[in-house]
Structures are given as structure tokens and as C-alpha cells.
Amino acid sequence: LPMAFRDVNARRHIGLQQLSSLALAGRTLLGPMKSCKFIVDESTNQSTLICSAVRLIESLDLSSAAGQLLNETIQAQNKEFKTGMSTLLFLIGAWSNAILECLQQNVPVSAIVSVMSEGLNSCCERVQCLQISIHDVNKELCSSSVRPNTFKSKTCQIGPDSLLNPQNFPYFQKDILAPEEVIPINSCSHQDDCNFNKCLVSPLAGFGSIASLVKPAGDKSTSVSSGSSVITSSCNKQKLTHSRYFSTLGKSHFSSQQGNFQGYLSGQSADACECYGLGHLAVTLSHGNQASMKLLQSIVAYQQERAEGSSSSQFNIAEIVTCCLLGLPESYSCVFPGLVTLVSPEQATVIKYFEDKPLRILLMDGDLTEQYRHLGFNRPCNVRTILEHPSLQEGRAGDLWLSSMLDILISFEVNLVLVKGNVCENLMERCIANSILVIGSVTRDVLRAFGEVTSAQPVTYLTQVNAACVGSGAQVELWKACDGRAMDLGELVPVRIKVRGIPLLTAVLTTTVPSKMQLIEDRFWTLVYRLHHALNDEKVFLGGGAVELLCLSHIQMLAEQPLQPANKNAVKEFHNPWLAASATEYKSVVLQALASGWKQYLSVVLCNTAKAASVLEACTLVDHHLKKAADCGSPSAYILKEFRRGDLLRGGSGPFADHGDSLKVYDNVTAKTEAWRRALDLVLLVLQTDAEIITGPKRNQLLNSHVSSEFMFL
């Protein structure tokens, strides 16, 4: 997708202007109510629906140096956290514009770099008072008055031979929960569940269950004990629920439907807090993503059930995989123990032969090809292979390899082979002819999960196989939808590989819209990683714009402080009295520029969530809260109080103004602060690179010439 840059000054700081133009395309991706974009491939005329900064950046023309740096920054954030990319992209654009304004006021580059860096560090320290530990979230939930009225307690125990209760896993299909006993598909009653779930916001039928709630760790000024709220809502209310920002809930039909639902709770009270709170934490981090939240809650419940609710940290992201099925309504999305994957119709014929039969399984940690060699393999350079019969065709050697590999599989009676890498097509065909199922491109985590329950030991080459490497107990079947239909999606057929007690879970994601498939998968993994990082951090930020509002208030307070002469420490740091004096002189201007980034952030979120009709109205609302926070004397105390009441950044009118309850939402700590730092680091890097080019030995010649902008930023 070519990117049309704005009319920029072709003689100065092209890099910053390019960053600003590129980031402008991601404004609608900010906040819980993102506006999706259709990206059209000009070469194929195919389109896809995107709703994340990562997919947007992949579609833009990033041939410029600034664009390449932007792409690397976004990809680094995505690789490490899988969340925070939209915030990162927006702040890059906002701070690029702010710095350009500083440059127009002749603020020295050295002052911009030093003051902005110090300001961001100060903000990161200041917002620590808005962190709340996971333990406090669970503790608040257990003491919340809403719990007895929301969930009906039930002791859930699981043994190696016990049948898991489907009611405890709202997005599990009931027929797949028995380890051995097969429950007929047509006996799976959906009537009661469907009647109940019609009252929920999510349209998914046959499932149900959501949980909710909270005490942050306050600063010196105050301590907080949050209220509680029920998080189910009438499907008649066409309003946003589970919103990351400013959301409240309609009245629930839950109380009249309690008899149809039994929530997941452990028998021990302390463990119940941890287990129950972990499911609640997924809700508070969902940021309006209802469908993914339901799937994740079922995953959490299943993992907690297997761990007997022993700890709130019993969430293993390595035991989760996804399978995307195109052609089914989104209401068919659900979670299955085992591996659900796609195979060719030819492989499906083998599966029909194996259905309901125990299989011998082999795991391969590499490619199943003749040319594959493990990492670190050193091919001898002084060894030459001489054919005894040079007249033989080259393909004969390949046939010998195929025959020998197939003989190994047959001799050890292997029925199923899971391969981490690629599989030789000719070998695949021979295996199908001999009723051996080979599935490639399987992750190492999947191999590990099957190895644990089948006693199979991964091998790198088939020549290493011995009797101890082959596992047993696996079963393969055609995947069936919740209404009992076996699916044939044309070129590929979904199948399920299961083993008793396997920890691996597959989230089957479905949709009838091809361009939406990637979007659904991205949203699911974003939520999964939010919960994962929250547990790793052992704390979360208050959400709903609380952190950004405190940053804005703190920076403005620093900017309003009277100018002071440069102290000795500052002079020593800059090694130049002029630089220290310059930073002090322009401190207020630069800090206001830094603050403008967070103010624009809050304003755009307010507009995207329809809490403000215009940017001007949004800025007015933000200024109103800033004034009240300043008048309070302790901005953090004011923000904590408003967060507790659910009034933070809420307008006097709007779709949620008539409701008193609001949903408590949270953000990741490390992912958010790293997004801030990466955004500022990139902007300052581009600023200093531009400055070095412009202030070089040919500065006057460069500024007075019509040099192409491509040479202005290297």
C-alpha cells in the first residue's frame, strides 16, 4: 500500500515528518473500539481486514530509512509482548509532531533529547502508584460482595479417570471432555445453555460463564478498595461492554438464570480466590474482546482444573495453539484438548481408517527430508561419494532413501508421525499408501505435550528410531462441529489428535469472512499474551486512561515549576555549561511537547469510543480532569478515586451516562512502559540523525539546494 506523505518541508528533518505521516494511518486503531481497515493488495486485488498496528505496518510502503526503523521498532514490541503496538505507533507520530514544533521554536536538539528522556523516566517512576498486584486483585475479588450473588459455588475435582464437567468449561464442546468415554454428538443438549446464553452479550451458543473484580496498591496519598460489578449484560443492550475505557454495563439477567450455570471454583477457599481471580483477570484485560475472552476463560479453567487450583500462576501459554477454520460462523469457535489441525483429503482417508483406534506415535524434531541436517552439522569437505554404478539415474538414490525410511516406520509399527519441520512429498505419498499419517509444521511445544503423555521421545532422523522412541495411546478423528457435522473445507480437512490427559489445548477459531480470519486470530493471541505478561509481572496498571492521565498531570506540573539555574550536577552531566543552561531554559517547552503526546492519546481514544464528538471536546474533557486533579492536591488520589467510582474520563452525556456501575479494566505494566520508551527512543534517534545531516560541513549548501528527500535521511 503506497503511503502518500503530507506536504513536508523537504529541507529539514524529513525523518520525523515521515514518522508522523506513517503513524497517522494508525489513529483509528487506538482504544477498545478500533475501526478496522481494509488493506488491498494491488498485485492480486485481494483484500484483508486489519485492526492492529503490526498488520498495518506490514501493508505500508516502508522503503524510506525512517520507515524501516519504524517497522523494526513495531516488530520488536510485537515479538516481545504481542501487545502495545498501537500505543507505540501513535506515540511515535504524536511525539514526532511535538518535536517538530519544538524545532520551529529553535529549541536545541540537545535540550529536546535530555529533557524528554528525563521527563519520561520521571513519569515511569510516578505511575508506579497506579500498579496493583495480582494477589490484591484476587484478594479483592474474594472479599467482594458480588461474588455470592454472581456464582454458585461447586467443588470441582479431577482424577486420571474422571469425566470433566462440561459446565466448568463454557467454550468446550461437551462431547470431547471425556478422556475415553465417547458421548454421542446428538446427545449434547444445547437447549438450556442456549437459552441462558441468549441473555449474554456474546452470540456464541451452547456455552456460558463470565466472571468479575479489585484493590490497587496506592501511593502515599491514599489507599483504594474498589467496588464490584457484575459483568454479564443483556444482549438487548446494543452497547460496548468489557471496554478498556469508560465502559459501564446494562442491567443483567444473570440473577434469574443462576440455576443454569455453575461457575468454576475450587474446593479450598484460598485456592478458589486464585483460580476465580485468574478468570476474572482475563476479563479485565480483554478490553472489549468478548469472543476471545470466553475462549481464554475456558482455557484458564481447564488448566486450573488439571492443576487442582493450586496456584494463580497455573497458566501455561506453551500449552495453547490455534486452528483457523474458514467457512463456519464465529459461534462455532471453541476449545479442544489435544491438537486440531488441517490435513489434505488424502490424509483424511487414512484418518477414517484409524478412527477410534489407539495409534503408535513418533515425534521428529526437524525436517523429514533427505537433505535435512541438524543445526551445527559439519559436512566433511574431504569426503567424496563414488557411485558403484554411475549409469544409474540420480533418482535411484532418492528412491532408496524413501524405501529405507518407509521400512523403518513399518518395522516399528508407527501409525502417526508428528514432524516439526517440512515433510518430503514423495515420502508423504508413500506413507498414505501404507496407512501412515504424517503431519508436518508442528511446533516444538506440541511435540513436548504429546511426548509427556505418550512416552514418545523426539528424534532428529528416522535412522535414530528405536522401540523406546515410539509412543502409544494417541487417537485421531475427523473434527466435528458442535452440531455434529464433520467438516470438509475443500482443499483441507480439520482433524483432531487426542491423548488421555494431554495438557495441550487448541482454540478453534471460525469465521465465514476470509478477510476477517487473521483479525480474529490476532485478537485472541493479544489477549492470551496480556494475561501471560500480567502473571509474569505479578502486577497490572489501572486501565481506562488512568496511567496516561497521571503522566499528563505529572509532566504539566513539572513544566509549570519556575526555572532554576543549572546546578553543578547538570553541568557535570553535559560536560558543557551552555548545554546545561540550554536544557534548563527550554525545559518547560520540551516538557509541554512531551505531555502533548499523552493528551493526544487520551483525546483520540475518547473520540474513537464515541465519548467525545470532536478532538476539541475530548481535549476539554481531559483539561477538566486535569484541573480537578490539580485542585485535589494529589493527582494520584483523584485518579484512584475516579477509577474506583468508574467516572474516570467519562463525559456528562453519552450511552453510558445513565448507569452507575462501571467495569474495572487493567493494562500490562511492562508492555505499556516499554512501548513508551521504544516510541521516544525511535523519535529521538531519528531527530539526532536528521540533525547530524543538517549540521554537517555542507549545511548551507544542503539547506539551500533542492536535494531529493531520499538523501536527507540516511
From TrEMBL:
Record GO biological process: chaperone-mediated protein complex assembly; photoreceptor cell maintenance
SUPFAM superfamilies referenced in this protein's UniProt entry, alphabetically: GroEL apical domain-like, GroEL equatorial domain-like
Classification via InterPro entries: BBS12, GroEL-like_apical_dom_sf, GROEL-like_equatorial_sf, TCP-1-like_intermed_sf
GO MF, one example: ATP binding
Gene3D superfamilies given in the database record: GroEL, GroEL-like equatorial domain, TCP-1-like chaperonin intermediate domain
Protein name from the UniProt record: Bardet-Biedl syndrome 12 protein
The species this protein was found in: Eudyptes sclateri
